[in-house]
């Protein structure tokens, strides 16, 4: 049973930056992929960044060029650097981790990011 704990959320002005961290209870290599999702009030949860076990990253167009996902293997953490933040980035951000066998997705508890205009 893996545990994911996010940190680093907060309030920032538009144009500012925040760095989120997700600490896993075990080796991040045990997961096929890890990612960051966000859910704004009244909206569906959406993927904002993902990184595979092999290190391949992916982003939706809405954050490409502004968000960067990275990992610290020694610390078993996955980070999300968010630059040029916009008010529409305001949401609760969740860390996720995917197992393939058996197929399962772990979630963190979420961390609030608020971007003021």
Unreliable spans are: none
Mean pLDDT: 96
Give the helix/strand class: mainly beta
Reported for the largest beta sheet, the result is: 7 strands, mixed
| Helix/strand order, N-terminal first | EEEEEEEEEEE
Number of strands: 11
Percent in helix: under 10%
Q: Note the quaternary state here.
A: single chain
Distance N terminus to C terminus? 40 Å
Proportion of β residues?
over 45%
What integer value in Å does the Rg equal? Answer: 13 Å
Number of helices: 0
What global shape is seen? globular
Q: Any chance you could write out the topology, listing elements then pairs?
A:
Layout: E1 4-7, E2 10-13, E3 18-24, E4 33-39, E5 46-52, E6 57-58, E7 67-72, E8 77-82, E9 91-99, E10 104-107, E11 111-116
Parallel strand pairs: 2-11
Antiparallel strand pairs: 1-3, 3-8, 4-5, 4-9, 5-6, 7-8, 9-10, 9-11
Describe the structure.
This protein has 117 residues and is an all-beta fold. It contains no helices and eleven strands. Strands 2, 4, 5, 6, 9, 10 and 11 form a seven-stranded mixed sheet that branches. The radius of gyration is 13 Å and the shape is globular.
């Amino acid at each position: 049973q893996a545990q994911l704990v996010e940190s680093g959320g907060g309030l920032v002005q538009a144009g500012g930056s925040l760095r989120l961290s997700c600490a896993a209870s075990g080796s991040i290599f045990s997961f096929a992929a890890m990612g960051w999702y966000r859910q704004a009030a009244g909206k569906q949860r959406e993927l904002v960044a993902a990184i595979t076990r092999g290190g391949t990253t992916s982003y939706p167009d809405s954050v490409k060029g502004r968000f960067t996902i990275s990992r610290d293997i020694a610390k078993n953490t996955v980070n999300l650097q968010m630059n040029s933040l916009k008010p529409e980035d305001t949401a609760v951000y969740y860390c996720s981790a995917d197992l393939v066998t058996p197929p399962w997705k772990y979630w963190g508890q979420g961390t609030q990011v608020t971007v003021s205009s």
